[in-house]
Write a structure and sequence with these properties.
Layout: H1 3-43, H2 50-58, H3 61-78, H4 82-101, H5 115-130, H6 137-140
């Protein structure tokens, strides 16, 4: 390997490590937000309505929303089934925008608009596109792994 190739390989490794740290930061932020909101909906934690209150407010879809937010948040946080969890949470946020927040406009305020939902979708898209990164539970568990060819 020539000197230039070694430098390029080293820079690629440095860049990959930076991406992995960035994905960890995104996963921690989104995972905590969704797990906390899901805990409100499932367990009544943090002053939330609990599962019965969530279903009473949302109807049967409340089960999917509550479970998707809580367990999806944990999946994103720990890097396990991250892409699936992030995609499910994007669908939940799109539903929240359409059903609740779009009528209130864009900005947060007395009647919250969809600004926060859109920011969360942006965080989650990074996980759907790039995966959980190196610092994730998925890298530790002996799960089937598919090599990506270039």
């Amino acid at each position: 390997m020539t000197g230039g190739a070694a430098v390029a390989r080293n820079m690629e490794e440095v860049n990959r490590t930076s991406v992995d740290w960035a994905l960890l930061a995104v996963r921690v932020a989104a995972g905590i937000i969704f797990a906390a909101h899901g805990a409100q909906k499932v367990f009544g934690a943090f002053g939330g309505p609990g599962l019965a209150g969530t279903v009473q407010f949302m109807g049967p879809i409340g089960y999917l929303v509550a479970i998707g937010e809580f367990f999806g948040g944990l999946g994103v946080l720990f890097g396990f089934l991250s892409r699936f969890s992030a995609a499910a949470q994007i669908l939940i946020m799109l539903g929240a925008i359409v059903k609740v927040h779009a009528a209130n406009g864009f900005f947060l305020g007395a009647k919250p608009g969809f600004e926060f939902n859109l920011a969360l979708i942006g965080l989650l898209l990074a996980i759907v596109i790039a995966g959980p990164g190196r610092f994730s539970l998925a890298r530790i568990l002996p799960l089937p792994y598919r090599e990506i060819t270039r």
